[in-house]
Amino acid sequence: MTEPYRLTLSEMVRQIGRKKLSPVDLAESLLNRIDLLEPSIQAWVTIERQKVLEEARRCAKEISRGRIRGPLHGVPLGVKDIFYTAGIKTGGGSKVLADFTPSFDSTAVHRLKQAGAIVLGKTATTEFAHADPAPTCNPWNREHTPGGSSSGSAAAVASGMCPGALGSQTGGSVLRPAAYCGVVGLKPTYGRVSRYGVIPFSWSLDHVGVLTRTAADAALLLSVLAGFDPRDPTSGRQEVPQYTRFRKSTRSPIIGVVEEFYRKNAEAQVWENTWAVLKRLKKAGARVEEVKMPESFAVVHDAHRVLMRAEGAAFHRPLFQKHADLYRPKLRELIELGGLIPAVDYLSAYRIKREFRRHMDRVMERYDLLLTPTTSSPAPRGLDSTGDPWFQVPWSFCGLPTITLPSGLSQDGLPLGVQLAGRAYSEGELLAWARWCEKVLEVSLTSPLD
């Protein structure tokens, strides 16, 4: 019999629904996996062992009485340590909030619980989701970074310690660690998932995302998380479809390849992997064209940096004035530099953001997907950096939905990924095409620790 921790999220849900898997057995399997691997991976800052087992027993009793709370009933999930969790410490990876315990759940956590999910624990993050690394190691090679800022979420999913986890992305903090660790990472459209109760970094750039093992699992989580929230002023009011029911179009996809920027900035092996992926998709029927990006693309990275620094400094100013000595070097530098940015530069960057989104909406009228490598290289060696977000930044900047899929291994046996971007608020189509790509590519990176 397959150990429960090896199952995908969708398989866990099906087996629990058919009474072939007990929530208690599942919880125990995941906790045993954590006991085995956590000392060397350090993906977690908090494990709610007793609460998890108590909740699993409660879920099992409800099943015996014919009650199912929702589509995630009895499944334990990881939560990045910037999401408020009632009664569980939320430290944001920083000494500044080391003893902070919220009295309420973030909207994302609340919706997971409403769907029947169990909070397994809080996963490690870089300090306040910026660049000062968490102690987490990459499960594929512990001398390499897992990426960030959703470091613990990616490592926990990749190593089988949980089937899915919440993450967040301001630059590349969901897709990059997902690619480095060989799992799926989904960043929905800006505003699709509420950020209420999530410690902010940059309010015009922050996205809530998910890390899973398959695109189908990402669709399942997004179906629970998405939707308008009046407590989040940036929350979108667009109707939320049932993402798990989307199927790809009967025609083959039109895929735009963003080659000019990505090819010259990627390691040779990364671009070779990307080109091999495109060949397989073309053989399966996809029409592939090179995309000419708008002129605004040339200033995207500079404008993103201005917004992130200015908004990060604005949020942290009150805390920084009281606890500057507790901040780590990279975030301290960002706050100090962000406070010096003139208002005219901030407003100019925001104007560029709006223009780039309009330009990309027009570009996407022609394509079903845009495809690029997710990262410029495999996970770098060393734990003093979380890698380069350069390849993910444009999509966080314009707010279009993106997903990374495992696409193979590097020469050193580290995961590589491809990044797919879709139209705004069209995650259903993006996820359906992602599932098609998974089927064509047949890349399934099992846990390297099994």
Shape call: globular
Enumerate the spans where pLDDT stays under 50 for 5 or more consecutive residues: none
Fraction of residues in β-strands: 5-15%
Count of the separate structural domains? 3
The Cα radius of gyration reads: 20 Å
Average residue pLDDT: 97
CATH class of the largest domain: Alpha Beta
Task: Explain the layout of strands and helices.
Elements: H1 9-17, H2 23-41, E1 44-47, H3 49-64, E2 76-80, H4 107-114, E3 118-123, H5 151-158, E4 164-169, H6 175-181, E5 184-187, E6 207-212, H7 215-225, E7 254-257, H8 259-265, H9 268-283, E8 287-290, H10 300-323, H11 329-338, H12 343-363, E9 369-373, H13 393-398, E10 402-409, E11 415-421, H14 427-441
Parallel strand pairs: 2-3, 2-4, 7-8, 7-9
Antiparallel strand pairs: 1-3, 4-6, 5-6, 5-10, 9-11, 10-11
